[in-house]
Amino acid sequence: MASHEFLMPSLGADMEAGTLVSWNIRPGDAVKRGQVVAVVETQKGAIDVEIWQDGTVEKLVVEPGQKVPVGAVLATLIAEGEPPTAAAVPEKAAAVAAPQPAVVRPQPAAIPARFRISPAARKLAEELGVNVDALTPAAADGVIGRADVERAAQAAKAGAPPKPGDWQAQMRKAIAAAMAKSKREIPHYYLGSGIEMTRALAWLERENAARPVTARMLYAVLLIKAVALALREVPELNGFWIDGAFQPGPGIHVGMAVAMRGGGLVAPAIHDADRKSLVQLMDDLRDLITRVRSGRLKSSEMADPTITLTSLGDLGVETVYGVIYPPQVALIGFGRISERAWAENGVVACRRAVTATLAADHRASDGHRGAVFLAAVNRLLQEPEQLQ
Amino acid sequence: MKGVAIKTTYREAMRAALREALQRDPRVFLMGEDVGRYGGSYAVSMGLLAEFGEERIRDTPLSESAFVGAGIGAALAGMRPIVEVMTVNFSLLALDQILNNAATIRHMSGGQFSIPLVIRMATGGGRQLAAQHSHSLEGWYAHIPGIRVVAPATLADARGMLWTALADPDPVIIFEHALLYNMEGELAADAGAVDIDKAAVRRAGTDATLITYGGSLGKALQAAEELARAGISAEVVDLRTLRPLDDATIIASVSKTHRAVIVDEGWKTGSLAAEIMARIMELAFYELDAPLARVCSIEVPIPYAKHLEDAALPQVAGIVAAVEGVVRGKP
């Protein structure tokens, strides 16, 4: 009876609105949970948006090119076994029942001032591939016209330096907002721990020796798996701080901080990292990095990491002091794996080791639990064959 | 004769069209107030009585309803009457005949009867004839299904529209703006019938389209000239036929320039200008780079005093300002 609403997802706590770039579906199409149905342009680039319910598309509410706030209805669908609605008035309860990732919730975002652009300018922008959100009107009336689009297209052709307002600047703004919120609101505590990596690396080298070059694994997957399994033991680090309370994550989705070419940073999720084999994690990681570089991430990856992992070791960093990405409650950092003088059983030996750090939200957990977590990571990395 | 141009006026071109029609088709006759002995209130039919005689150039009593009705009857009976109504305001007395008979009989007879009638009338202000003789009501007639409405604005159209209108099996109303009769210019010596279906681009341009007809065409062209000196390239579309409107030409022009100003001497409320704006919005919304604008008569009974009449009617300066308004965003 009721149609279910497919909403503009929040692809990060800092997102207020997104522009629908294109639909992959049409009214009448059958859709499956997890299917990529649309592309949405955000401050972090174009994101493939998945739908979270099986059903049949009833109506596409938002047209490509429209910018709408988070929580706005993008489309309606009819769940399996339900007749099409006569009136497209959705029932509230049905809309709420539509399964959504925990963090994807309509936010009471302020409705932005109406974006004023002439119909011809919007059409031309689509033809020339100009991002209208980045345009600034030349005329005093503040309306973007064809001339503004033509100017932007010419500037882009001439390889002009990016002007303020383009997506890189937008991303900088987004990172600034999120990090400022983090430092303003989250009482961080920091713990660090040296972890001996000799056994883990030796095991990995043996594993890789038996594999073709293309199937070899990076040590990063050992870290991801160890972190994911350790989070099972200390679940209060895995989740979100929302409305003054901790909400455990619906799974262990490890956000991998990846630097983007040309600047900026995203941390898309590897879903259910604790339940995946190392081989699967390696595949996921490779796929994720490729798509970050090409700017084609999926909505769920952007929206629902339950913790962030950042590794800056390849640049020689010893220790990472992380800033938590709200509304997450913890960030795990790994520095460089280096040979160190390692004292053990009264003997100083030369061992390969890494410094793992935890930046955690003191509202959600205490130092003791953080210490338990790092100890678990350490323990797990000493038994690499168990991580498979 | 082809290619040879002669100097003539709109009035003379109109008279030449009448003469040709009377010569070519014995079913054609002209009737109206003062069209015979007086030679027409705008001297269009001057000399035709002597040339064609009283049977074919017929003076009528001062009763628009009667002689327009007689024209309808004659058309029903197989004649090809040309009825001249002195000015559009007098046509209101014949509106019942036009709206309820001329426009409907084909439909009400299931296509058994047609009314091949042509009604000519003068329209428009600008001659200090005050509120009762300065109307531009062609937009009202363009509202009526069952008739065709044309507005010759050039010598060629004054010369060529009448014969095509007579060939139309349905009623055609020709609106002649009274200020045009003295317009001089050159016309091909062999000028003849022209189509009454298509609008015409009278001046090509790229920045904005001026859409107009009849007595306002000259003002629009003059405005385009002034705009060109200011670096704005205005295209001028002459509607020519007000019903049915030639959407294709209008939309093609607006799709090129992305901006449009409609110039219509009618009052703007419920006007032809409003209809054109609506069609552009329906058919070319995604081509528009600025809101549409229009220059119409001020919504007052047209004043007698010269300065007030000038202020009430569309003028070149107002057209220039309206175009500048819609191209303001242009770099």
Provide a compact summary of the structure.
The complex is a heterodimer of chains A (388) and B (331). In chain A, 29% of the residues lie in helices and 26% in strands.
What's the CATH C level of the largest domain in chain A? Alpha Beta
In what range is the share of β-strand residues of chain B?
15-25%
Coarse structural class of chain A: alpha+beta
Provide the gyration radius of chain B in Å.
20 Å
Low-confidence stretches of chain A: 86-110, 160-165
Beta-strand percent range of chain A: 25-35%
Per the CATH scheme, the topology name of the largest domain in chain B is Rossmann fold
Number of strands of chain B: 14
User: How would the global form of chain A be characterised?
Assistant: elongated
Describe this structure as you would to a colleague.
- The complex is a heterodimer of chains A (388) and B (331).
- Chain A is an alpha+beta fold and 388 residues long.
- Chain A has three domains: 4-97, OB fold (Dihydrolipoamide Acetyltransferase, E2P) (Beta Barrel), CATH 2.40.50.100; 119-170, no CATH class; 187-387, Chloramphenicol acetyltransferase-like domain (Chloramphenicol Acetyltransferase).
- Chain A is built from nine helices and 20 strands.
- In chain A, strands 9, 12, 15, 17, 18, 19 and 20 form a seven-stranded mixed beta sheet that branches. In chain A, strands 7-2-4-5-16 form a five-stranded mixed beta sheet. A four-stranded antiparallel beta sheet of chain A has the order 1-8-6-3.
- In chain A, helix 6 (219-233) packs across helix 9.
- The model of chain A is unreliable at 86-110 and 160-165 (pLDDT under 50).
- By secondary structure, chain B is of the alpha/beta class.
- Chain B folds into two domains: 5-188, Rossmann fold (3-Layer(aba) Sandwich), CATH 3.40.50.970; 200-326, Rossmann fold.
- In chain B, 37% of the residues lie in helices and 21% in strands.
- In chain B, the strands form three sheets. In chain B, strands 3-2-4-5-7-6-12 form a seven-stranded mixed beta sheet, sandwiched between helices. A five-stranded mixed beta sheet of chain B has the order 9-11-10-13-14, sandwiched between helices. In chain B, strands 1-8 form a two-stranded antiparallel ribbon.
- Chain B is globular, with a radius of gyration of 20 Å.
- The mean pLDDT of chain B is 96.
- Classes of the chains: A alpha+beta (388), B alpha/beta (331).
- Chains A and B meet through helix 2 and helix 3 of A and loops of B.
